[in-house]
């Protein structure tokens, strides 16, 4: 397992974590596209994270099941967290150096605007697939 460091744009929030799975996903739901000005590209992480300057992290509850976090100083989007599992979906491009990512999943694919398409062949899940998965876990 390798140790990786991430930070917000201003560098006030930093964190390190150990990873061995470099799978990256893109979410095309309306909320992610509105929050991110495009699809939200993340890596899933289930371990504990030690944040430096944690008090600068602002959380926004965007649904009954999830919250989004960003730096209150510079606005960098840090992660999306599922409340029932504590699973993090960390913004893929905040790591230095960049991670050796494997883009293999797109969710809310039926919500993706027609104006863009990724070249990668990925597993695709619809809004109905995601909502069923969430309902099954509650």
UniProtKB/TrEMBL annotation:
Which InterPro entries does the UniProt entry name for this protein? Answer: CENP-V/GFA (IPR006913), Mss4-like_sf (IPR011057)
Family label: Belongs to the Gfa family.
User: Does the keyword Zinc feature in the UniProt annotation?
Assistant: yes
Gene3D superfamilies registered for this protein in UniProt:
glutathione-dependent formaldehyde- activating enzyme (gfa) (3.90.1590.10)
Limits of the CENP-V/GFA domain: 4-117
Keyword set, alphabetical order:
Lyase, Metal-binding, Zinc
Range of residues in the leader sequence: none
Gene Ontology MF terms in the entry: carbon-sulfur lyase activity; metal ion binding
Q: Which PANTHER family match?
A: CENP-V_GFA DOMAIN-CONTAINING PROTEIN-RELATED, GFA DOMAIN-CONTAINING PROTEIN
- Write the protein's name: CENP-V/GFA domain-containing protein
Q: Per the database entry, which stretches of residues form a coiled coil?
A: none
